[in-house]
Amino acid sequence: MARLLMNQQMNKINPIKKEVMRTKFIVACFLASGAIGFSQVPKKALKEANKALKSGNIEVAKEALNAAEGLLGAADDKMKAQYYFLKAQVASSSKDKSLEQFEKSTSAYAKVLEIEKTSGSSKYTAQATTGLQTLRQALVENAIEDQKAGNNKEAADKLYLGYKTSKTDTLYLYYAASNAVNAKDYDTALTYYNELVDLGFNGIENIHQAINKETGKVDPFGDKNLMMLSVKSGTHIKPETIQTPSKKSEITKNIVLIYISQGKDEEAMKAMEVAKKENPEDTSLMQAEADMFYKLGNVAKYKEIVEAIVTKDPNNPDLIFNLGVSASRLGDNEQALDYYKKAIELKPDYGAAQINIASIMLGEEQAIVEEMNGLGTSSSDYKRYDTLKQKRQDLYKNVVPYLEGALKSDPDNIEAVRTLMNIYYQLDDAKAGDLKNKLKALEGGN
Fold it and tell me: H or E stretch including 156?
């Protein structure tokens, strides 16, 4: 009866406890098998780990691998490759998608490839290669999710790990650097960018695309052969291969700006000189150099370079606008107005240029008001006051079209709404009330 009760109690043991007991039993067996010989222990452990892995018992497989790990020194290359392959699979099977877990998986697969390459074996090479490819894809997908969530540091780390698993995928390194910049981890970004420079990376890609006859949309293709097969089959037309611009200038620009932000002006100048030698006609690089001098406070040099860029690209409204900014900073508001107006000619809805014009024009109001306030009570003073009042009104009327234009492109610009509202009040324009209500709504009803 006592034995029967004991058996009944054993049958009631929680399944999880049974698994723990099984794991302990496995480890105990491995530790007690010294009499059989050390070489047999890893072999048995690996066999048990493989069996547990196939049945989905990840914890049991992990314990078995732990038992084998300390005795790998005496194992042959074949057994070591199997150990690392199983270790990679166990790590990959984990629900934990942290960087640390990815590193465990990738390093284990890489170890398999290293061992088999040295030994001349290839039993696990194909599976390990496929495993690494799967992990790289997972790393990219997780990095994209991190990036969407604003976790740029985590995205950068995962993309860099993806690059380390296959150093031919230099785009991973490029995007890792970009995410490091967004995370304001400038030291890491600089390391990645300099590595890209050392590699001679340019980021140029060939994009194969053709128009889908059914949808009328442009479909991308992974390679040229697939695109041409689709055209031959009649599903697509107008195939073309487009080459993306080089990313060298952007990389150089970011390196320079990082050095400037760190107060390393000398390094910034050296980096720019090297880049200019390689791409002397690159307007993007010239813009980067202009930005460098702007940040260093040398506005005159900034203006000189931007003017040179404009001669190469005279119909670029952004370049013309930048010239307006530099002219304004140099105190030449008349020239700044000319540049801003030119930018609007090229781009009629250029709100920033319209606001800057309004700002410069309204800057004249202070002198008018000061003179009005300093007048006396003589008849000549009254006449002068009326003249100045009219001048002020005319100024407001000239400003109105620019602010109205700015609000067309950016209706919720609070400062533009407030300024235009005040001007309408000065001009006794009924539209002031409408803007007052709009301003109230934009400010949350306050």
Answer: helix 152-165
